[in-house]
Amino acid sequence: MNENIRAKSLRVIDSNGDNLGTISKEEALRIAKSQELDLFVVSDKSEIPVARILDYGKYKFELSKKEKTQKKKQNSNEFKEIKLRYNIDIGDYNTRLNQAKKFLDKGKRVKLNITLRGREMQHQNLAQDLARRFLNDLVYEGHPEGDVGKMTGRSMIVFIIPGPDKTKIKEIEKAKKEQEDAENDSESEDS
């Protein structure tokens, strides 16, 4: 950067992104100083190094900002795993459900893993019912990705994506409305 550049001639790009061509290091430094900016070598891999005239502090800040956004994108692909057994107790079930809600609220995907051991393989229908119940309880926080109730070896794995399951919510609201209408009809007949 600036006076620490060793090359005698540089291919210079100005602060607007225009190519100034190959000029001497002294000329490039003079141009940078006149604009109150820094001369920074971007690439020194070629015979003639490429340098930019820029505000170095701002450049470093933008680089760190890009790195943070890339890390966030990498973390968004992460998922948290919730393991269940088909004969889980209600207290444990509620704990796992609350954990899944927290993960989904943070924007993380959830991997629901229901494992069957030994003779439990005969009860695949109970594992499917548990998976459907779990998804119904999470209808406002997340929705399943792909098929539900498909066994992979001894495990049933369902990925849950953050965001409400709009089709299920509509079905639930429709069922509630029909139930309320039925109750109102029965009350009016009793009168």
Describe this structure in words.
- The protein is of the alpha+beta class and 191 residues long.
- The chain folds into two domains: 2-56, Ubiquitin-like (UB roll), CATH 3.10.20.80; 75-165, Translation initiation factor 3 (IF-3), C-terminal domain (Translation Initiation Factor IF3, 2-Layer Sandwich), CATH 3.30.110.
- 45% of the residues lie in helices and 26% in strands.
- It contains five helices and nine strands, in the order E-E-H-E-E-H-E-H-E-H-E-E-E-H.
- It has helices spanning 25-34, 56-76, 90-105, 124-137, 166-190, and strands at residues 9-13, 19-24, 38-43, 50-54, 79-84, 109-115, 142-145, 151-152, 155-162.
- Strands 5, 6, 7, 8 and 9 form a five-stranded mixed beta sheet that branches. It has a four-stranded mixed beta sheet with strand order 2-1-4-3.
- 15% of the residues are buried.
The overall strand count is 9
CATH C-level class of the largest domain is Alpha Beta
The assigned structural class equals: alpha+beta
Shape: elongated
Please state the oligomeric state of the protein chains shown: single chain
